[in-house]
Amino acid sequence: MGLLSGLGELGLKGLDGVDLYEDDSKTVKKEETPAPAASINTFDERECLFGKSHTCPVCYKEFKALTVRQSKIRPAGMDRDLRPRFKNFDPMKYDVILCPHCGYAALGRFFHTITPPQAKLVKEGISRNFRPVEDKEFITYEEAFLRYQLALGNAVVKKGRAGEKAYLCLKMAWILRGRREAIEAGTEKVAPEECATILEELEQDETELLTNALDGFLNARQNETFPICGMDESTLDYIIAVTAMTLKKYDLVNQMLNVLLVKSRLTPMMKDNCIDIKEELRKIKNDAQ
Ligand SMILES: [Zn+2]
């Protein structure tokens, strides 16, 4: 997967293959196969959404963005890397705000904080070629992923910080994991003969995004001040440790655990997970001997 492949359908093909952190030259390019998205669900996601008014800080036009009604969110636990899980539907699909007029897109946290020089860069790098998107009553995982890609494209064009890009990559990995789980649970229907291939591709793409997230977080940890994307140092170090474990970068895991386990600011759940990871590492080392 090119991290930004798919943006061609929004008129932004030129962004495909762009280098995320500039000094890091390992963006892997692969054509993405579009999967048939037919989501049949008795639960009506539209009832959980409303159109929230925004004024775009880039083109100054007004628009309404699909927004989740907080009262409709039903938490259902958390993955080890702090990805929140939910019953019925995944509110994270709606975390990117997209201006349908000019193509400026960002996570809600960053949407209104763009500086005038950055807005100029977005106008030149995104708006000039952007094809407006149609209004939707709700969006599928695939449509959500495209919005995240656009947000990442915007972050690159506006020369956003490594932390913001890394955080987007992490959330994109979570969106793909959410889609994979929805397919496995049967709430998102795909053609049976394509199911195995789609699941495998989603897993590979998730790994690629986690790799990019890890690179960016390590960069941000050195060069940015906390909080980074709302995360304090312990939380970011924890996410680095868990992600490195998923990616089998055991030296880095060890290094982060040594820092984390002497700190007291982890939540009890995070601390327990660190102890589990330390034990898993020990077993892996023993098995290797
Ligand atoms: Zn706009």
How would you concisely characterize the structure shown here?
The protein is 47% helix and 9% strand.
Unreliable residue stretches:
24-31
Shape: globular
DSSP, total strands: 6
Query: What is the arithmetic mean of pLDDT?
Result: 91
Strand order of the largest sheet: 1-2
Instruction: Note the total helix count.
Output: 8
Q: Which class best fits the helix and strand makeup?
A: mainly alpha
Major sheet summary line: 2 strands, antiparallel
The Rg value, from CA coordinates, equals 19 Å
**How are helices and strands ordered from N to C?**
EEEEEEHHHHHHHH
Bound small molecules, deduplicated: zinc ion
Strand content: 5-15%
Termini Cα gap? 36 Å
Number of domains: 2
Helix content: 40-55%
Structure explained in plain terms:
- It is a single chain.
- 47% of the residues lie in helices and 9% in strands.
- The chain is mainly alpha-helical and 289 residues long.
- It has 2 domains: 7-160, no CATH class; 236-288.
- The two termini are 36 Å apart.
- The model is unreliable at 24-31 (pLDDT under 50).
- Zinc ion binds at residues 56, 58-59, 61, 99, 101-102, 104.
Write the layout of secondary structure elements.
Layout: E1 49-55, E2 62-68, E3 75-78, E4 84-86, E5 96-98, E6 105-107, H1 108-111, H2 116-127, H3 141-157, H4 162-185, H5 192-223, H6 233-246, H7 250-260, H8 268-288
Antiparallel strand pairs: 1-2, 3-4, 5-6
